[in-house]
Records
---
Amino acid sequence: MKKFDLEDVRYRTHMQKDRLESYKKFFDDPDKLKRLEEQECVICYYNSKFGGAAMTDSNCGLCETKMNFGSTNVDKLCTDCSKMHELCKHCGADINYKKRNKL
């Protein structure tokens, strides 16, 4: 095993500072208007989205409309349903993280 040295400390510090900087987006929400236009919650919008490279079909979790995606990272809801119910189209959470008693 390689001995831990100053370069390791510098590299880890740099990586953690970058990570911390990226987390600020979750609280500052610098692209709020664009995020709301795309109908996504803060976490889904600013988190990186990974998916397999395969065309994927999925149905909306509410109206069951068929949706097509360019990867396996699919949305839970169609845009119309997510707007109507003020939900994140990707994960289905309340777009403003409000506690709800009904849909």
---
Amino acid sequence: MRVQRVVLPEGCGVSWTVLGADHTPIEPIEAWLSHLSNVGRSPNTQKAYATDVRDYFLFLEQRQISWREPSLEVLGEWSAWLRSPLVAGGAVVAFGSRGPRCGPATVSRKLSAISAFYEFQARHGLDVGQLRPMWQAWDGRRAGGSWKPFLTDIGPSRQRRRQVQVRVPKREPRLRTAAEVQSLLDACDRLRDRFLIALVYSTGIRIGEALGARHEDLVPRRGEFRVVARDNVNGARAKSGERTVPAPPELMRLYADYITEEYQALDSDYVFVNLWSGRRGAPVTYASAHDLARRLSRQVGFKFEFHQLRHSYATGLLRRGVAVEVVSKLMGHRHVTTTIDTYAHLSDTDIRRHLEAVGFFENGFFGDQGVML
């Protein structure tokens, strides 16, 4: 059983499927993955979900359990199995000597995928029995019905709660200091790569939004970069729709240098294209961007990922007192709570600076409130 990449006809991108032992798609999985593709889920999401449901089917196969007989007990066993130590060859190992198969965040994602898989099958007649409460809509006050209206998946998602859950430790986003970003910029020997890093750092856009950028999206006279949702041949996606982000003059000057010295008269709508390897003029892919990140990591001496620049942008705005609603808009978050949950983190230095600003360390701070220490 394996996950297989599928190239769609007529340049419609890629999709994913799961092949069985006979090298043909597994029908219930294929139907669900086709549905995800039809409602516009990204290829990366499809791949992740295909991997999750394949792992679940392999688990069922080992236990000789039919996928048509789901139960909370089976999902609970699968969750425990995912979190158990990975043991080679069935050998017994001491506790703590091996790490778990999956971390909490991965286990939670896999449970979400299987929940969505069974919800889809239930709509097509499968008796899901006791799994039905897994999809109760939750509005913060009371649980609603199990079923969602027609075409719900195409519209905004609603919060749902699962009966089988895994607690995921909250991790603060990894940031890069100004000095570290400068070292990344200085390590670039191509203006294209330098401009890519500068664009993500100074606008907070996602790497997919950068790779899908067209020349018309940059408006130098207004100092703007426009994120536009469109189909891109390199698979890049604007995850959260369209928005306009202010861009500093230095970024626009770097863009002009890149076009003048490297891009020159190349006929392409895409901003970031292959110039020295691959098919000249073809848009840069995710894989090429990740290769660049790995090369720069070796040069600067720390692990660099493009999303760190986005985190640094948002955190820098919040530390400067920009309202969280404004930051949420700039980041392209659908809900301000996403911004609050992700970026409402303060270091010890930040906390002390804010306390100093309100006079916490002054002798009269508590005295003004009638309290003498």
---
Amino acid sequence: MIWWIKNIALVLLSCFFLLFGIMVLISAYKLNDPYNFIMSFFSSNLIILISATLLFGFLYRIYRRLRNLDSSDEENI
């Protein structure tokens, strides 16, 4: 049970940072200073990249656990 709570919390946290990175990216296009635009643009892309990768990893871990639970249920029948 603790495993599920931990992984669902990690999925929600990575979704939050993914949305945060998208919001930073949108706000970067509203900047007038080119230096601030470049810094905001690349930092938002890094936030998006890392959080999307972690989100994929956590979801894959949950998928593997669910697949193993399904196969173990079929063996017990």
---
Amino acid sequence: MPIIQPQDITATGKKFSTIIYGEPGIGKSTLALSAPNPVFCDFDRGVLRVRAEHRKPTLEMSSYDEFLEDLDTSEIKQCETVIIDTAGSMVSMMYAKYDKQLNTKDPRKVYGAIKTEFSRLTGQIRDALNKNVIYIFHSVEEEKNDKAVVRLLCEGSAKNLVWAPCDFGGYLYKRDSKRYINFTSSAVAFAKGCHGIHDEWEIPSLEPGDKNDFVTRLFEQARKNIADDDGASNAIKAQYEIVMERGMKIIATITDEATANAAKAEISELNHFSTSKKELSTLLTKKAKTFGLTFDKKLDAFVAGGGGSQ
């Protein structure tokens, strides 16, 4: 596999894996369907609950193996986003598959297989097929330290395992008649943010005829954030390379004690970036040693002979 240099890494066309969860009827499916060019993989026979104008091509699932086979269909190949609704039902189908396949009485082994498969599946859809993948979960309240906390409604420990391979995930909820999705964990609900997608985002109300594109715009913002970060990083890298080139030329002028100390002074005045000061100082000392010079800390200078302290 070829190595990609940092300057060649780009967010153009990057795909994301996302979890959306919340209570039934709050609009998770409609929100997920605002992703770019989606196919709706219906594990709950729930697509009819989505307003007709927001429905997209749909595949109805009756088993996990059927879903894996459908990943090779033309519908999936032509889409940009694969929506799994609900992922809790998909995990239940996974459990049935691996419980039978492993023939074990130890549920931990089954959940271990589910964790491995969930990560593999996410990688297949996002990386191999180059699609966004959105997992929709219902939420459930649980007691923790005498407080109610919101978690994914999912088989056993799988509700904790499915977060790992996902880029970000948000809890969808309603407050004062408005809907929000939060990508930052709180005391009451777990969430996951990255690429600048954090905190609370208000979900716009959709009137008949309104464009449903919230997640599309969210993904675009994430890509922009990555590109902006790359741009800032590349600017620093360019400045670093300029300083290093200038410093190497200065070091090349060393021939004796006087030129070594002149080089030290000149390098200290450079506008350093990243690790350039440390690296050039090391190279400077190494070059000075080739002329029998050592650095005396008390004098803050290079001196001839071996009496200096470094």
